[in-house]
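can u pls check wat happens w/ FE2/S2 (inorganic) cluster
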Amino acid sequence: MVGDETAATAATAPHPLVPRTCKVVERRRQCDDVVTLVLDVPDASPSLPGQFNMLTALGVGEAAVSISGGGAPGDGTHLEHTVRDVGPVTHALCGTPVGGTVGVRGPFGTGWVAHAVDELDAEDVVVVAGGIGLAPLRGALDALARRHHDGLRTGTLALALGAKSPDQLVFTEDLGRWAAAGVAVATTVDVAGPGWHGEVGVVTGLLPGLAFDPARARALVCGPEVMMRFTIRALRDRGMALERIRVSLERNMQCGLGWCGHCQLGPLLLCRDGPVLDCTEELMALLSQRER
Ligand SMILES: Cc1cc2nc3c(=O)[nH]c(=O)nc-3n(C[C@H](O)[C@H](O)[C@H](O)COP(=O)(O)OP(=O)(O)OC[C@H]3O[C@@H](n4cnc5c(N)ncnc54)[C@H](O)[C@@H]3O)c2cc1C
Ligand code: FES
């Protein structure tokens, strides 16, 4: 009987390479070339902040996109994905209207925490994001900010966010909300525009102004690889051990399941062992090798 049930379940479970078709229920423009799609995923498995889905633009192709909101148990069936239009698939995804459909497979990969954000309650947390690198961090920041506001954390919580220009800043509607919850929010842009009165310069320039104890802090870092390398260097200069720094890495993803090898980085398959990884000397060596 048990064998029959197992066989029946296996027969009805969707194949992991077959996407579910999901409706776009909301579409928010973040900036010129970045759109957040809210998808209704009725049978979504719970996900950790930092994990990603493979999204299909029907008839065009598939791309890895981080889950930028929703997904926690109790959050309902709405999952947010924030997409930058850089090529055919992301262009079609960004153009999908409310009521249109998108294929979804996942969630895949590792999150910023192993099980839940309360793992970080006793630690100072410094989040460093470059541009759309804030997308995979947004769910973690939301959950941490909620716990911070409710007095459940004993560590400090800070966000350093950099963008090329003021009009490239994403999730601007969230920044005030996080600040109100007690997050020390600092932003900077490479090039200021009219009306910008904030910081100008690279994101690492914000770190000296943020209160955290390097000995007990955890850094969560996502952005262009060059930005992550400089951020890691600045955090180490401040006295933070490499192992206290987590990064999210992007490579070409195809299956998302550890089957095809497209996302290989040395001994790692980033769809399975990443995208979020603890920094180690070995990882730093792999990253610098790729750039030679
Ligand atoms: C784990 C993971 C999470 C991601 N999360 C997001 C996200 O939240 N939002 C988002 O907009 N994008 C995200 N990406 C990147 C996204 O998958 C690519 O931009 C997308 O696959 C590009 O497909 P395309 O057909 O639109 O363009 P393509 O024609 O395939 O590529 C256009 C340009 O983007 C570059 N590119 C393609 N894929 C990647 C990649 N993986 N990393 C860096 N450069 C790439 C190409 O070299 C080319 O220059 C993520 C990638 C990974 C691996
Ligand atoms: S994407 Fe196929 S092994 Fe990682």
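Residues 135-149 form the longest helix (15 residues).
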